[in-house]
Specification:
With 243 residues, the protein is an alpha/beta fold. Strand 5 and strand 6 (185-191) form a beta hairpin. The longest helix is centred in the first third of the chain and has 22 residues, at 9-30. It has nine helices and nine strands. It is globular, with a radius of gyration of 19 Å.
Length: 243
């Protein structure tokens, strides 16, 4: 409480770094190879690189082993991360087509996530937070807002699922960030950091799966609005929805 009363963001960031260091110590006690702790540390980086799934070899710098599967389960069981599973066929029973070995990971604490993504920045405490609060960081922080959405949905008891599919005549993919089932319909959710003008993935999702799609949402920093059947909502409203 004294740190909060002082309104000292540098002090808050220092405490968060100490928490991360404690996490690292605990993970190394579980796995002395360091691969488990590297998996945890790589979560923000892999989200920033917009990977379609969590890649163990990208986290460890080594070829994936059978033991790494156990390490992943240990990390998920620790509740330090939130798994978001890929589903092959959107339906009201989302869990039926989830791929257990294809998933993204989000951190369960957005405060620690923010500290980790600016870990290498000089004076990353107060200055970074001021820029974040005033929206003056010249970077695409969509993955930061994705993690916010993941944490909110998980806190409401929602399982996390996403869906990707190949664009026609292309090597690129469409992707919908989150899917939830509600009232016998699938609700697709996209998350953006700022601009809400580009939403081709969620538009194509509605065309491809029109029979099962219910309401569609795009969450960003923008105000409440509507674009055709797409409902635009500010990110802070997500915590009051999907009870």
């Amino acid at each position: 409480m004294p740190i909060i009363r002082k309104n000292n963001l540098d002090a808050v960031d220092k405490v968060k770094r100490e928490i991360i260091n404690l996490y690292m110590d605990d993970l190394r006690k579980i796995d002395s190879s360091g691969r488990l702790s590297n998996m945890y540390l790589s979560v923000p980086t892999q989200l920033a690189l917009n990977k379609k799934k969590f890649v163990v070899s990208a986290a460890t710098g080594k070829q994936k082993t059978q033991k790494d599967n156990e390490r992943i389960f240990d990390l998920i069981d620790s509740k330090m991360v939130l798994p978001c599973y890929h589903i092959t066929k959107p339906d009201i029973s989302l869990s039926q087509t989830r791929e257990f070995d294809v998933f993204k990971l989000y951190l369960s604490d957005i405060g620690l996530f923010t500290t980790m993504i600016f870990n290498d920045a000089e004076n990353s405490g107060k200055d970074i937070y001021k820029k974040l609060l005033s929206d003056k960081i010249d970077a695409n922080l969509g993955y930061l807002y994705e993690n916010v959405a993941a944490q909110i949905l998980a806190s409401k008891g929602r399982k996390l699922y996403y869906h990707t599919w190949l664009k026609e005549n292309s090597s690129h993919y469409f992707e919908v960030d989150f899917l939830i089932a509600e009232n016998n319909k699938v609700i697709p959710i996209e998350v953006k950091s700022s601009s809400a003008r580009n939403h081709s993935s969620i538009d194509e999702f509605e065309k491809k799966y029109s029979k099962c799609v219910g309401r569609r949402y795009l969450f960003s920093q923008k105000d409440l609005a509507k674009n055709g059947t797409l409902l635009l909502r500010p990110v802070y409203m997500l915590q009051f929805m999907f009870e």
